[in-house]
Amino acid sequence: MKRAWVVVIALLLGSWGHRAFASPTETGETGLVTIPTTDVLAPWKPSIGITLDGMINPPQTPTGEIQVNHTHFSLGIGLLPNLEFTSELPYVEFERNVPLQRHTDDIGGLRLGLKYRLLNEERGAPLGAALLGAFVAGTGRDDLPAVLDRTTVFGSREAYEVMAIVDKVLLKTSQGDATFTLNAGGLFFDKPSGFSVQNQSAAFQRRFRGPNATFDVPFEFAAGLKLPLFQTYYAHGEFLNEFRGNTAIVQQVQGALPTRDFVGFRFANVYGFAVQGGADFGLSGYLDPYRFIASISYAMPAVVPPRPPRVVRAPPPPPPPPAPVKKKIVLRGVHFDFDKAAIRSDSVPILREAANALKENQTVTVIVEGHTDSKGTEEYNQRLSVRRADAVKGYLVKHGVAASRLTARGKGESQPVASNDTEEGQAENRRVELLVQP
Amino acid sequence: MRFLVALCCAVLWSTAAVAGDVASQFESFCVEWMGKLAARQEDNIAHIKWDTKPDGVKGEYVGYTTEHTCTLKNETQVPIGKIIYREIVFQKSGGTIPEAEKSPAQAIETTEVTEIFRYASGKWVY
């Protein structure tokens, strides 16, 4: 991880440092937009895009040129797994001041290519690798550069391009992958017919610094770094830094490589729409030190990932099932004569009510439990509670409740429900309970 | 004749008045009894007997639901009142007694209780 960041910082510092110390050489254009990666469209999935770039604060040059604006239309489609057809239409507008009038020239080009992915890092390869082969044609005039996507050439000409692409995930984060991409390749074409620097105007020669410029076999290279900024289900954002250059023209004219560095951002959504923008700095060998680049594109995704389930806090575990509810009938106000177990007549309505309740539920059995307050000794209260429980049982049996359903027992003063310190509490503790057994 | 009619009316009136009095008394008694249960629950919580073991402390107390029904059976000579509520055995546990005291109580046993009371000498007897 540390090594990855060292690479990133070195690239950034390197590109800016180069920019700081390089001197503009006023030599040409490089119409590069975004360096190719090893990504390949899925079969029969199309992509389409448009990119605009123009000069920021264009310098006044000896040629009188004041604006150079590039427009790139791109179209691609997946043909087979790992094979993609790509095409581009670069279109360049030169706006120049010529004596007494402002003059605009337009030139264009065509690029048709195939990209084949050799290795796919997502499928376990040590890195991603792809080959790009293209036929390119420029419709430039003899006195204007024809922009063949990555390289400026002159005249109307055709060429073949071969490029190797490698990329490597440097770091995986929760917001996406940090990826390094490397491109290297070249254009092969004949010298333009009827074109020579010597035949060009003095302004053109000043622009390209002399008649000795040749335009053969430019070697192109690019290195890109993509750093994730954020990632949600719907969208992700990236920081981009792309350093690139070629050997066309300038190396032989100036001995200096024309190089540029793009710094920008890209935002894409899950449905394949993306916008990208940033500044493109001419580091060396360029007339225009600053350009802006903006693009919008659509690439049909192979699969729109399913929306992840919303993260919700796990519901608390369900409470344990409640224990079966027991039943208990507490007979209050069942009075006995002092020290006797005989039920007083005024308590009969209570027992009658209890007997009726038990007769309505013939299936249950009942424990008749006598309780006393704490007056008297423990042994005495125990015996008393047993005798009173027996008395209640006797009444219930006499009034129609089967004796087999009833069990009498005494608890004495051992289970008070209230304080025995007050008369009121003692009254609450004197009771007979009918514990219903399921 | 008029006297007999007046006497009947008086008897009916007084009977109705007594019946109404029993009902309103039971209503008040019912509230009072549930108040006793609430106080009993507070007392139970204050006097939990903690069972201390190497893995922690555990204690139980008896509580009562505030939901209840009060039913009056007034057609017999002796009015009978029933109060029905639920008695719940709660358990608290924790590493220490203070922890256990602060822990939420878990209900471990529920009993539906029907208490039957009788009315005698102008009051509800228990």
Description:
- The complex is a heterodimer of chains A (438) and B (126).
- Chain A has 6 helices and 18 strands.
- By secondary structure, chain A is an alpha+beta fold.
- In chain A, strands 1-2-3-4-5-8-9-10-11-12-13-14 form a 12-stranded antiparallel barrel.
- Chain A is rod-shaped.
- Chain A starts with a helix and ends with a strand.
- In chain A, 34% of the residues are buried.
- Helices cover 40% and strands 40% of the residues of chain B.
- Chain B has helices at residues 2-46, 97-102, and strands spanning 51-53, 56-64, 69-73, 80-94, 106-120, 123-125.
- Strand 15 of chain A pairs parallel with strand 5 (106-120) of chain B, so a sheet runs across the interface.
Short summary:
The complex is a heterodimer of chains A (438) and B (126). Chain A has 438 residues and is of the alpha+beta class.
* Count of distinct strands of chain A: 18
Tell me the overall shape of chain B.
elongated
SS field, number of helical segments of chain A: 6
Helix percentage range of chain B: 40-55%
Mean pLDDT of chain B: 84
Break the fold down into its secondary structure elements and pairings.
The complex is a heterodimer of chains A (438) and B (126).
Chain A: H1 2-21, E1 46-55, E2 65-80, E3 83-98, E4 101-119, E5 128-139, E6 145-148, E7 151-154, E8 156-173, E9 176-189, H2 202-207, E10 219-231, E11 235-246, H3 250-253, E12 259-269, E13 273-284, E14 290-299, E15 326-331, H4 348-360, E16 365-371, H5 378-398, E17 406-410, H6 423-429, E18 431-437
Parallel strand pairs in A: 16-17
Antiparallel strand pairs in A: 1-2, 1-14, 2-3, 3-4, 4-5, 5-8, 6-7, 8-9, 9-10, 10-11, 11-12, 12-13, 13-14, 15-18, 16-18
Chain B: H1 2-46, E1 51-53, E2 56-64, E3 69-73, E4 80-94, H2 97-102, E5 106-120, E6 123-125
Antiparallel strand pairs in B: 1-2, 2-4, 3-4, 4-5, 5-6
